[in-house]
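Design a sequence for this backbone.
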């Protein structure tokens, strides 16, 4: 048989699923975990941000207590010294698949999204279907996969493979996820034939709790968007105009409309997430002073290495991001007082962003301040509300403040 993807069958459509609960929020809140040294900011300004698992486990429990809907980890393959510089930026990194999955044991409500380069090396869809079914069982339906195709030639070389052409990667990813979905939906032995994978009498158990795990991808290209609207529940987008907020807010409405309209033509509804780096202090002046201190401590060697990676990448999403914007990091920068941050989040919502995947410079205290000063204002603005969660078969009420 040939694999099929049932795009109309999403865990978001099942009342009681963790994804359905997250989708009831006017603005989905996610945390992009710093499971690599340096996080998202190429700066040597002192901070406590740490790539180690214990630190990220604390952040995840902190985010869950604040009512965040999901956490996410970056996947990368870098050589010794990472991107270089004094920091050896991102030389140390946890595997996103294993680290994010391990958080299931210490959390109860929050969604856990693991990033996997499914086309690298020896991955077979049957492996990931079985692993995903197991993680779905362990997490009570809270696990999902951010399936990425790999846009850096040196990463492909690590696995002894030539990099596949951009659009062909998405065609192969669609093939891969079609096999996953077919296995997750079947309660029988399956013989499956595709152009790149073959399975004889394959079977996966247990059945996923809500039809299948959550599916995510990150993209900005036409081929990636076409894949996303067909196969994803959450689409991780970037600003097509760079990290400056005013530039981004002008470009995002057309970009998000393209995704929304593409899904609607297929009678699907996906949600878009964008990754702002939040720099928030009690006053605008203090916030800009904090940002300026971060930028003043740029590790120029690491910055050169990070920006230089672009020459080995065919990604379309980052073309307008400027070198200096990579110091603070993130898809775009939200800088200001709590009230100003809320105004900017409202603007992102109006521009078609269904959620945000937040990063910070000094994660633990900056996330705590966000919870203390910004979240109550988001509730007042109607961007967050109380939610009913279904954990272990029971209903519990959580508030976001």
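Sequence:
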């Amino acid at each position: 048989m040939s694999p099929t993807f049932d795009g109309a069958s999403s865990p978001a459509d099942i009342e009681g699923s963790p994804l359905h609960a997250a989708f009831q929020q006017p603005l989905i809140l996610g945390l992009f975990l710093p499971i690599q040294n340096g996080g998202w900011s190429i700066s040597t300004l002192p901070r406590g941000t740490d790539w180690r698992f214990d630190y990220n486990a604390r952040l995840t429990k902190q985010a869950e207590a604040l009512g965040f809907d999901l956490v996410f980890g970056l996947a990368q393959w870098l050589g010794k010294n990472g991107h270089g510089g004094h920091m050896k930026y991102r030389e140390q990194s946890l595997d996103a698949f294993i680290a994010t999955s391990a958080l299931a044991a210490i959390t109860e409500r929050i969604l856990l999204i693991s990033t996997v380069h499914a086309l690298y090396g020896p991955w077979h869809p049957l492996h990931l279907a079985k692993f995903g079914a197991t993680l779905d069982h362990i997490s009570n339906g809270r696990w999902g996969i951010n399936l990425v195709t790999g846009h850096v030639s040196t990463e492909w070389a690590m696995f002894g493979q030539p990099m596949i052409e951009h659009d062909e990667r998405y065609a192969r990813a669609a093939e891969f996820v079609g096999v996953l979905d077919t296995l997750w939906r079947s309660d029988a032995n399956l013989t499956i034939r595709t152009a790149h994978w073959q399975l004889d009498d394959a079977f996966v158990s247990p059945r996923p709790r809500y039809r299948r795990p959550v599916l995510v991808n990150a993209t900005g290209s036409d081929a990636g968007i076409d894949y996303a609207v067909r196969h994803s529940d959450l689409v991780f987008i970037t600003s097509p105009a760079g990290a400056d907020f005013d530039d981004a807010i002008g470009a995002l409405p057309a970009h998000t409309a393209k995704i929304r309209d593409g899904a609607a033509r297929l009678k699907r509804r996906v949600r878009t997430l964008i990754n702002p780096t939040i720099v928030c202090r009690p006053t605008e002046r203090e916030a800009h002073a904090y940002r300026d201190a971060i930028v003043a401590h740029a590790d120029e060697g690491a910055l050169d290495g990070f920006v230089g990676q672009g020459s080995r990448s065919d990604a379309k999403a980052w073309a307008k991001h400027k070198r200096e914007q990579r110091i603070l990091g993130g898809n775009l920068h939200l800088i200001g007082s709590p009230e100003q941050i809320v105004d900017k989040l409202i603007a992102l919502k109006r521009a078609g962003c269904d959620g945000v995947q937040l990063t910070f410079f000094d994660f633990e205290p900056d996330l705590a301040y966000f919870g203390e000063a910004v979240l109550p204002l988001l509730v007042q603005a109607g961007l967050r509300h109380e939610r009913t969660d279904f954990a272990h078969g029971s209903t519990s009420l959580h508030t976001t403040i």
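The mean pLDDT is 93.
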